[in-house]
Specification:
- This protein has a single domain, classed as Arc Repressor Mutant, subunit A.
- It is built from four helices and no strands.
- It has helices at residues 8-22, 29-36, 40-46, 50-70.
- The longest helix has 21 residues, at 50-70.
- The chain is globular.
- The model has no long low-confidence stretch (mean pLDDT 87).
C-alpha cells in the first residue's frame, strides 16, 4: 500500500531509506515519486529543485546520524 507524503521531513526520511536500501540511483525525482505513488508536483511542493532536495537530504542525514549522537 502506497502512502501519501505530507511534509518535507517525510520526503527526506523516505529518501534516506531509499538511499540506504537501493543506493544513489534510486534518488531521482521520478523514481522517488513512483515508489511513493505520488506526482512530481507533490515533490516540488516541498522542494524548489533537485539541488535544494539534495542539500536538505544532506542536512537531514547529518542531523539524524551525527548530532543526536554528539548531544
Amino acid at each position: 500500500m502506497k502512502t501519501t507524503i505530507s511534509n518535507q521531513q517525510q520526503w527526506l526520511k523516505f529518501a534516506l531509506k531509499q538511499l540506504v536500501k537501493h543506493g544513489p540511483n534510486q534518488l531521482t525525482i521520478a523514481k522517488l515519486c513512483d515508489a511513493k505513488g505520488v506526482t512530481k508536483g507533490s515533490f516540488y511542493h516541498h522542494f524548489n529543485n533537485r539541488q535544494q532536495f539534495i542539500e536538505s537530504l544532506m542536512e537531514y542525514w547529518y542531523q539524524q546520524m551525527t548530532v543526536n549522537f554528539i548531544a
